Amino acid sequence: MVMMKQPFFSLSLVLVILCYCTTTSAQSPAAAPSPSSAPTDIIRILNKAQGYTTLIRLLKTTQVSNQIDSQLLNSNNGLTFFAPSDSAFQSLKSGFLNSLSDQQKNELIQFHMIPSFVAITNFDTLSNPVRTQAGSDPDRLALNITGSGSQVNLTTGIVNATVGGTVYTDSQLAVYQVDKVLIPRDIVLPKPPAPAPAPEKSKTSKKKSADSAASPADDDSAATALKMNIGTWMPVVVGAIAAVAAST
Fold first, then answer.
1. Cys bridge to 147: 25, 46, 123, 140, which one at CB 3.0-4.6 A?
2. 223, containing H or E segment
3. Where are the beta strands (DSSP E) in 72-228?
4. Which superkingdom heads the taxonomic lineage of this protein's source (predicted)?
5. Alpha-carbon dihedral 121, 107, 178, 174, rounded to 10 degrees
6. If you average pLDDT over residues 21-40, what whole number do you get?
7. How far is CA 140 from the centre of its chain?
8. DSSP labels for 52-74?
């Protein structure tokens, strides 16, 4: 009797265990999405790194932070961003930022951005001057970069800066700390003067031109009138001469 019940008991136990495992597996929550799949947020990155309060404020007021996030979401080229720390902004001349217009502040931030992803060891592959998102004017918006390994130096013609380290990097975005605010020549140098308007011709010059243009026509009219007078009087003169000759 005992030998016959043991297989039945073992089979029942196996069925209970299988049923329990199936129920537990069905009720387990779905796997959470990977943090890397979340959209890039430049403000979140800088807040986490700490020490970029002034830069964050400028990114928000100029709305360049929204531009960066949108660009990374809709482009495959990536982005390289040179991030000046708070100490870098503190080294600026007092009142410098407040003296800038909204357009100049926007240009200043755009000048810190290269519209492609550049790894820290690949700066030596770039051609100078490097084009930034501020524009491509080689005289007023030139950024020259030299790199050797992880040592990267930048010059704008106004400021010489050095990359102090990597704040953040993935396959699309690279954020590097710089020890100086990259000020382009376009902000410091005076704008080229606008071309002078063409001088307006005076009324006297216009009158003289009109008189000069009318003179040949007047001469032609006088010549025509003289010819007409000669043609009218010629028969009379010829007749008078013939009459005198006949009387003699």
1. 123
2. helix 203-247
3. 79-84, 113-114, 144-148, 151-155, 160-169, 173-178
4. Eukaryota
5. -40
6. 47
7. 13
8. -HHHHHHHHHTTHHHHHHHHHHH
Over residues 193-201, the mean pLDDT reads 66
Range among 58-62, 169-173, 198-202 rated most confident: 58-62
151-155 sheet: strands from edge to edge: 113-114, 79-84, 173-178, 160-169, 151-155, 144-148
d(CA 166, CA 191): 35
d(CA 206, CA 213): 10
* Structural contact between residues 89 and 166, judged by C-beta atoms closer than 8 angstroms: no
**Amino acid at the residue 14:** V
Calpha distance 169→181 (Å, rounded): 20
Query: Residue 144 in 3-state DSSP?
Result: strand
What residues have CB less than 8 Å from 200, skipping those under 6 apart?
none
CB of 152 within 8 A of CB of 161? Answer: no
CA 74 to chain centre: 17
Task: Return the SS3 of 147.
Answer: strand
More reliable by pLDDT, 196 or 18: 196
Give Cα separations from 160 to 86, 91, 97, 228 (angstroms): 17, 13, 19, 89
